[in-house]
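Example record

One chain of 101 residues, shown exactly as stored in the release files.
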Amino acid sequence: MNRPLPNSSLDILDTQPERVKNPFSGESIVLPPDALAVLDWLYGLQFLLEEMSGFADHGISKRMRMEMGSEMTEEQVLGDMGTAKGWFLKHEPTAYKILID
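Predicted structure tokens for this chain:
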């Protein structure tokens, strides 16, 4: 598969498809490596947003937040999350319904 990634800084680390499970519904789906990279990005953004909003305290240090990209504003994080979700809607609509929706 040669699909454009939604962010040029994303790296595809996986070489094989992998089954991913929704922890809430228990449903799962096999994702190709590019979709795994986008999903990891989305989950990282969600983690960062929770930290920024004070919704969750994952116990990470200020230095680690900076390394994760906390110089981003909440609006930028939300925008990137929308970009990641849009990529899934276009390229992996079934996975979107199972893992994100």
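Notes: The chain has one domain: 28-100.
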